[in-house]
Design a protein that fits this description.
The complex is a heterodimer.
Chain A (H helix, E strand, L loop, with lengths): L1 H37 L2 H5 L2 E2 L7 E2 L2 H32 L5 H15 L2 H15 L5 H24 L4 H9 L4 H11 L1 H16 L3 H4 L19 H9 L4 H34 L3
Antiparallel strand pairs in A: 1-2
Helix pairs in contact in A: 1-12, 3-6, 3-9, 3-11, 4-6, 5-6, 6-9, 7-8, 9-12, 11-12
Chain B lengths: L5 H10 L33 E10 L2 E11 L4 E5 L6 H8 L9 E9 L2 E2 L7 H6 L1 E4 L10 H11 L5 H14 L3 H4 L12 H13 L5 E5 L7 H14 L4 E5 L3 H7 L2 E6 L2 E7 H6 L4 H7 L5
Parallel strand pairs in B: 3-8, 3-9, 6-7, 7-8
Antiparallel strand pairs in B: 1-2, 1-4, 4-5, 9-10
The chains are: A mainly alpha, B alpha/beta.
């Protein structure tokens, strides 16, 4: 009887695992099947032609470049905020600190706020400061979105750094600043994972950039220009009644997925190389 | 067997040449008797660390109570006692690691080569540099074997690669690890076995050229063979260093200690040479502990 029970549950677990693998495979098949025929070299290297939003000619360079710029900018800005936070609550504050707990709780709450709310919030900021839809506004909105992710995922690993490690470095005569370097090095695989997670979230998010970065057919050349993004490119093209334009949406999805895939492989390779180490 | 009163014990200790440098007994000492610590008329070796009337409070808890001890140079001193008796706290006051935690209050003096380490004028890095710390579990820094050893010298300003290479080799040899790792100095330190990691940590501590080695149950996480290697290293290293070990295992203390400090509930109950303390303990509490009555 118990053997049967085990068999049933084992099968159920196997099915659940297969569902995950299967859905990944199905998504790939779907976007490849519809996107690949629409893919061409032009898609990657040309900006759209033949009409705003729904043009059939040209490519998606505007959205690719926009997304890449946006994500790079937002990640840098997000790291610039989150690393000091993580270092402060883990290196400077004592283990049981009310302030650290409040910070963690706030990050958790921020984590759960939907991206459209960040978009709306950034939009009110833009009005207040008199900013137009621009790459900069998009970067700020997206960095708001990913900073809690960065903080929480880095914090999880930073908390695991044993006190003995800090003591060891201290007893060798290290200063607080040098301790920070050791701690950051210890959690560097965690930082890579955090960056990877947040890039995944940032590059795929449409709602936060809708009002902030806007949309344009050209590649932005400065922070004050509006920027197109891949998720919005998918969104706008998919809502077109023209079949060819819809196919281009799948091509955009294919590019988006490919970028995320490449990034994640790079990050894995890089973090493995880091853990093999050298100062 | 008669119980000694504190004064008897002190007189006895004063007479015994072996314990000239090592006095015990906050618990058995009246503060007004503390002048007995200093024996002006006797030529005594200079104690490496002297603790005078040390009281430590952690979050309102009185963790160390009026501790008065001397740690001799070039010998192994073992601090024994049941868990939670303040052994580790005492050890960590020596290199001021306690300052890290908030809500800590330290009263009294810890003299290192005659200099009070809690003096605000004292450079804390300078104090820590004089002491190498081995913790319970080895904690290699997240870098290669070479960089682990070179870390200390580097932060103290040694940059030349030739010199660093020489130091790394020297201290890996002192820790008995050179032969095992000389071909893979660039692999991450956490690939080593636990026992090797602990010897690496020892080498790393030695590389800042300390005078004192502090060990906080440094072998308790290790297998018997690795423990034995570390113990042998301590016996060899005491020629050049003063070694203070916190240990849970009485047998280890019996094997390697020259001096013993027995602590109970934050107080030093008895201190003396290993020979005296193990063979002729003066306090009932010590006898009970040694006979395994409690642990």
């Amino acid at each position: 009887m118990r053997k049967l029970e085990e068999k049933i549950f084992k099968t159920l677990m196997r099915i659940a695992t297969l569902v995950i693998l299967g859905s990944l495979l199905l998504i790939f098949i779907a976007i490849i099947k519809r996107g690949l025929p629409a893919m061409s070299w032009d898609m990657l290297t040309k900006i759209p032609g033949g009409g705003f939003y729904i043009g059939k000619e040209g490519g998606l360079l505007n959205a690719i470049a926009g997304s890449v710029f946006l994500v790079i900018g937002a990640t840098i800005l997000g790291l610039a905020i989150s690393i000091p936070v993580v270092v402060y609550i883990n290196v400077y504050l004592p283990r049981k600190s009310l302030f650290a707990d409040i910070t963690r709780l706030s990050a958790d709450i921020l984590f759960g706020i939907p991206s459209i709310v960040y978009g709306a919030f950034a939009f009110t900021l833009m009005i207040y400061f008199g900013l137009k839809t621009s790459l900069l506004a998009g970067i700020i909105a997206v960095s708001l979105l990913i900073t809690p992710i960065l903080i929480r995922s880095m914090d999880e690993v930073a908390r695991l750094v044993p006190k003995d490690l800090k003591d060891a470095a201290l007893s060798l005569g290290a200063t607080r600043y040098e301790i920070i370097k050791v701690v950051l090095k210890q959690i560097s695989p965690g930082i890579t994972t955090a960056i990877l997670l947040s890039i995944g979230r940032a590059i795929g998010d449409a709602a936060s950039v809708l009002f902030t970065a806007g949309y344009t057919d050209s590649v932005p050349t400065s922070l004050s220009q509006p920027a197109a993004t891949l998720p919005l490119a998918i969104f706008f093209q998919l809502s077109s009644p023209i079949q060819e334009v819809q196919d281009r949406a799948y091509a955009a999805a294919l590019i988006l997925t490919a970028i995320v895939l490449v990034l994640s492989l790079l990050a894995r390779y890089y973090s493995r190389k880091l853990s093999k180490n050298k100062v | 067997m008669r119980l000694l009163n504190p004064r008897d014990m002190l007189v006895r200790a004063k007479k015994s040449p072996k314990v000239r440098t090592l006095f015990g007994g906050a618990a058995v000492l009246e503060p007004e008797n503390s002048h007995l610590h200093v024996q002006k008329d006797m030529p005594m070796e200079k104690p490496h660390i002297s603790v005078r009337n040390l009281n430590v409070y952690l979050q309102q808890n009185h963790v160390l109570k009026n501790v008065n001890i001397d740690i001799p140079s070039n010998a192994i001193t073992c601090i024994i006692g049941p868990s939670g008796c303040g052994k580790t706290t005492l050890l960590k006051t020596f290199n001021r690691l306690l300052d890290q935690s908030l809500e800590v209050k330290i009263d009294g003096e810890v003299l290192l080569d005659g200099e009070n380490i809690h003096d605000p004028k004292v450079d804390i890095m300078h104090i820590r540099k004089k002491m190498g710390l081995l913790s319970q579990r080895p904690v290699p820094l997240p870098m290669s074997i070479f960089d682990n050893i070179a870390y200390g010298p580097r932060i103290h300003g040694i940059r030349r690669k030739k010199k660093l290479e020489r130091l790394v080799q020297k201290y890996l040899k002192s820790a008995g690890l050179w032969e095992e790792v000389k071909d893979r100095l660039n692999t991450p330190a956490n690939r080593l076995s636990i026992g090797q990691q602990q010897r690496l940590c020892l080498a790393r501590g030695l590389a800042v050229e300390p005078e004192i080695i502090l060990g906080d149950e440094a072998t308790s996480a290790l297998d018997p063979i690795s423990s034995k290697k570390i113990e042998e290293l301590f016996l060899k290293l005491k020629e050049e260093y003063s070694i203070v070990l916190v240990t849970h295992t009485l047998r280890q203390a019996k094997r390697i200690a020259d001096y013993i400090i027995f602590m109970y509930m934050g107080e030093v109950v008895e201190a003396g040479t290993a020979d005296q303390l193990f063979n002729n303990p003066q306090q009932e509490l010590t006898r009970e502990y040694l006979s395994g009555y409690f642990s």
